[in-house]
Amino acid sequence: MRWRSRTIGLSLAFFSLAFFSFFLYLLLALDSLPDYQRPRDPPLSPRTLSDPHGDYTPVGVRGLAEPPTQEPVTVFRAEESGLLKLEALFDHPLYNGPESPIPEEDRLLKQKPNTKTSEKSSSTWSVASQEADKGVQWTSSVDRLPPWRRFQLGISRWQLYSHRDPVTEPLAQQLATHRIVSAVQKSGGTQLKLVMSFSNYGEALFKPMKQERDEETNYNLYYFSDFERHNAEVAAFHLDRVLGYRRVPPVVGRLVDVVSEIKDITTDLKLAQTFFTSPVGSVCFYGKCSYYCSTEHAVCGRPRLLEASLAAMLPDVSLEARRSWRSPWRRSYSRSKLARWESEPDYCSKVTKKPPYNKGTRLVDFMDMVILDFLMGNMDRHHYETFEKFGNNTFLLHLDNGRAFGRHSRDEPSILAPLLQCCRIHRSTWLRLQLLSLPRYRLSDVMRASLSRDPLHIVAPLLSELHLAALDRRLKTVLETVSRCLERRGGADEVIKNEVI
Ligand SMILES: Nc1ncnc2c1ncn2[C@@H]1O[C@H](COP(=O)(O)OP(=O)(O)OP(=O)(O)O)[C@@H](O)[C@H]1O
Ligand SMILES: [Mn+2]
């Protein structure tokens, strides 16, 4: 009897465990989305990025070939298990939607077969592009085009690049290693940034390191006076990809030689005039701009190498216009004034009555951006951009993330105000956020792993452990906010929105 009741007890435990696992699986994968099976892509190749010149080993910084100095085995295991988690995450059905060829009208750039030569070879293409204007004709097959060009050709109505896109890795390598042939200041920005060019006509947006990684933004500084951080730009690209959005152009970290890669090659006279050597012999510059462009805020090499972020450039606006949208939840950018959303209780219903928020997925797309910003503590999303070609039915570009990751010890609840006030979220985002809260795919672990593949990781981790821990804490807050919405609003249909446009 005792044996039988123990067997029954064990079987019950087994069945309830199996039932629970099945339920969880249903919740995360099958609840709304079909279980699409497609052949798995090969695993990501190990990081192959390397120092282009092989000549930097800054003092106090680990050399490229040297193993980590602290607890090598533990560090390695943690990194390895993080990478496995990242692989498992990217293999999950929630990241592998059905892939159908992108119709011509949903592509940003046209890829036209070259009429003269297409009879001879079907692999000959001519791309209507800025290179054509510059007198460069691409007559090679698409996969022989430079990575920056392939990246631009891959931009669609729905995303900047596809999941497992074969071009992201070569593009990152180009940004991290190719020789910089020109560096000029980008006009119009409030803080110093440069446009760098490569010999294959690729371009990158450069933001220099202005703050140590673990330095917290001064609490008495208003959000609009905060510095931009190069590591925030890198980390935002990784976080956006981990969230499954793919709306931040690829960004890598790079050590740039201030003398040979900026000062000696720049044609920008205004920029060239701002170079000087500091009392300890570091080469510094400050450029011309409206915020922090002065000797006191100069950026300096150590003594010549400067950490920076390099973002892949989107097609020039003269070729593919972008529309800039003022955020309905924009902050007041004033020390004393409140914005409307801060005082009007029914603010969301006013927003949703007006285009473009009254139709399609614009409101839930906006919530995706709000969630990204809350996770990384970015209070500076005053505007966002879309590609004009796609009208109102398109994704929102998550550009300009330099003011994120300024504080890890505090979360900023006001960034979540739109989600709290509107209680709307994409179903796929809601499911992916739940996935990232499970120990198997923990957000901080997959982010640590993802960032460990950036070239600057060798100098120091792009995000400190405190920032990584803040991501998990903030994710919990987002999930709680949505759960409270579900309780308050009754039906899930009100809150959780299917993708359909
Ligand atoms: N990867 C990119 N490719 C092309 N253009 C970009 C890219 N990233 C940003 N930009 C453009 O550069 C402009 C300035 O960049 P950014 O917003 O980072 O500068 P900023 O000085 O912070 O400007 P603001 O003070 O208006 O926010 C952006 O409005 C955007 O249109
Ligand atoms: Mn900005």
TrEMBL record:
GO biological process: one example: enamel mineralization
One GO MF term: metal ion binding
Ranges where the FAM20 C-terminal domain occurs: 275-490
Pfam families per the UniProt record, alphabetical: Fam20C
Subcellular location as annotated: Golgi apparatus
Residue numbers binding Mn(2+): 228, 400
Main location: Golgi
Residues annotated to bind ATP: 191, 207, 228, 311-314, 385, 400
Keyword line: ATP-binding, Disulfide bond, Glycoprotein, Golgi apparatus, Manganese, Metal-binding, Nucleotide-binding
CDD domains: FAM20_C
Cofactor or coenzyme needed: Mn(2+)
Residues annotated as the enzyme's active site: 380
Residue ranges with Low complexity bias: 112-128
Region (Disordered): 98-128
One Gene Ontology CC term in the entry: Golgi apparatus
Family statement drawn from the similarity comment of this UniProt entry: Belongs to the FAM20 family.
Protein name: Family with sequence similarity 20 member C, like
